[in-house]
Amino acid sequence: GEDVEQSLFLSVREGDSSVINCTYTDSSSTYLYWYKQEPGAGLQLLTYIFSNMDMKQDQRLTVLLNKKDKHLSLRIADTQTGDSAIYFCAESLTGANNLFFGTGTRLTVIP
Amino acid sequence: NAGVTQTPKFQVLKTGQSMTLQCAQDMNHEYMSWYRQDPGMGLRLIHYSVGAGITDQGEVPNGYNVSRSTTEDFPLRLLSAAPSQTSVYFCASKTDKDFAFFGQGTRLTVV
Asked: Is it the case that residue A1 has pLDDT exceeding 60?
């Protein structure tokens, strides 16, 4: 099956940049997503990138996609305590509606 | 616009009991799915439906049944709850061209 991998934990100091990484195995991905889950809440779509793009920027968020290495990253500039959450990488494949999720990275922002 | 609504938010069951987790969406989305979230494992697909009357199994379907009699509703049934089904359950809906919208989740504990 499809394999989407993330590291489980990341700690950064408030004001620094955070970089959350994700690798995937299926080259037929159409969209790659980043979802944010705050404690006790559902999943909130943060941003996404189409598989034929290399980069997408949205305010403090920058998504980089390296298709050759099947590597996706999410950079959060000027990380704030409100950014503390679990971040999930997910992919959808050509012709399919299912999403395949990574394990999630728990980001802790230290004041 | 309510989006995806899941009920209940919390539930405790005894081993062997049955129950139904409800999911309703008001966006007229064709595609609906159920995921379970377990620590360190991300979200795993249980069952999904591409339209009323059509359901199919995901990655971890054992112990769960679904039906889709209307476009709006996609209930998940546990016929005989087991402690291994202790998890947080998320329902999601989407169209072909849209992104997945998630409910707030149901936290289920089986004792």
From this structure: no
